[in-house]
User: Fold long-chain-fatty-acid--CoA ligase from Felis catus.
Amino acid sequence: MAGLLLLPPLLLLPPLLLLLRTLHIWPRLRWLAADLAFAVRVLRCNRALRARALAAAAADPRGPEGGCSLAWRLAQLARQRPAHVFLIHGARRFSYAEAERQSNRAARAFLRARGWDAGPGGGGEERAGAAAPLTPGATVALLLPACPEFLWLWFGLAKAGLRAAFVPAALRRGPLLHCLRSCGARALVLAPELLESLEPDLPALRAMGLHLWAAGPETRLAGISDVLAEASAEADEPVPGYLSAPQSVMDTCLYIFTSGTTGLPKAARISHLKILQCQGFYQLCGAHQEDVIYLALPLYHMSGSLLGIVGCLGIGATVVLKSKFSAGQFWDDCQQHGVTVVQYIGELCRYLVNQPPSQAERGHKVRLVVGSGLRPDTWERFVRRFGPLQVLETYGLTEGNVATFNYTGQPGAVGRASWLYKHVFPFSLIRYDVTTGEPVRDTQGHCVATSTGEPGLLVAPVSQQSPFLGYAGGPELDRGKLLKDVFRPGDVFFNTGDLLVCDDQGFLRFHDRTGDTFRWKGENVATTEVAEALESLDFVQEVNVYGVTVPGHEGRAGMAALVLRPPHSLDLEQLYSHVSENLPPYAWPRFLRLQESLATTETFKQQKVRMTKEGFNPSALSDPLYVLDRAGGAYLPLTPARYSALLAGDLRI
Assistant:
């Protein structure tokens, strides 16, 4: 009888589910469940991080666990999981206990340079006498590739109460000197393999009064000592925690330079609070301590150092560190080391889907890929070819105070704008005028929130929990990053400089950088929209879209640099037909530039500013160029004659 009584409700279940789907309620319930699950994960993560902060504050200041959160966490892992592998680099493996010992040696070497003498019992005191090259809190710049030694020196500097500055490895001459001056560096650690290319800069570096070290013995230059040799001669006992304990969690403990795509790099101040928060990154992504994380990103970038390394320390997992990304070696590495989590940025996933099929890509253990900058077309190709796996796209800035997580796995989205998420990580989208480069304000002088589906500037309130520390080098560098009186008199918001869209289902999608979006024919052109349309062509492998100034025309005309997919050739007729069917007329690229490979930064960001400056003059560029002939309805080779006709106003684009 009981079974018969249950039968009618069971029969009603399928039509009920169908009704929920028809009314679009079922997806909303599913997303609400995902919002709640992520909120619970955030609460658990915050509880764990708060417990670590309290434990570090309560620890004996003369013991190793009385220091900053980074030193405290490493010491804790060395005690709790001493034999667990922390780092794999090539054929070398290091346990958490070995990482602790290596960083202790580095800390003692830096402390000697600080004039601090560790004595035989592991205590210490400041030495009197000759001036030491470093003082407490001084900044030491690291110009090194991604390698274990980078980590030992970074951790050692933190334990010694010194600030590290991560200098991009490609910088030379003026930009390098600018970075070192802006962060107030007192010493510089160089990779031996970079000394030859840096030799012209050495006189200027010495003139700045920098103490110079090399991270290895392969140097014969006077005045440059081997910091690794000095560290190896030191004891590996912990140093007292009080040396690194901050006065406030808002104190600067590290400098990471912005990419410099729109000018000289700026030294973003990284606080102890941010280091602690980044320990929760992989926990929020759903990773755990038995995961093996693949990291092939530069350590001078936030994604590599704070999210990759500090995030790994947060869960006590293993990281496979690569000095350089290799698409051809990637799946072999994953098979060899049992990789379960991969961190990406920019175009890494695109490089992988453009590789020919290999046996190693089958039967892998990768279950989660985490990162930012994955375009929708690559997302679908990646999952279809290498799945089943979860893609977790995130959004954040080195100096920013807001982050988003696409924990639902919705393709193309960077996160959610649910009331629950915004309660935990508050942010807003406000209207932005591309022409003036300023937010739109109402008659009362306040900013205006965007409507559903409308691109808006992402801003986040500055508070004690989500501060903005700015940049080293002067308050004028912060100008433009802070907006005041946004919604109420006196409020302050961080300006991300990015345009996002919130759709009718509450998903956030990246739209464009404010500096990349341009106006043409009175309309706003989003470079991402044009790039996605072009990338759907089977003969196009990579695209970089940007705006160029054309004499006699207002605004900027769209230009697309293309890399063809082997073995295809450029089909101009199909390309014109495709853009005319998939883009509004004002968004059609007016110029095409065919390249062997796209110019990118070392963190795989496209070089739009440089490409814009290079323009479209066929006499100045060796790449094949094409121009849109509106009258003829076709793309034509941009010859010097057509270039002259364009400048004279005889060629209509």
Observations:
- Residues 1-8 have pLDDT under 50 and may be disordered.
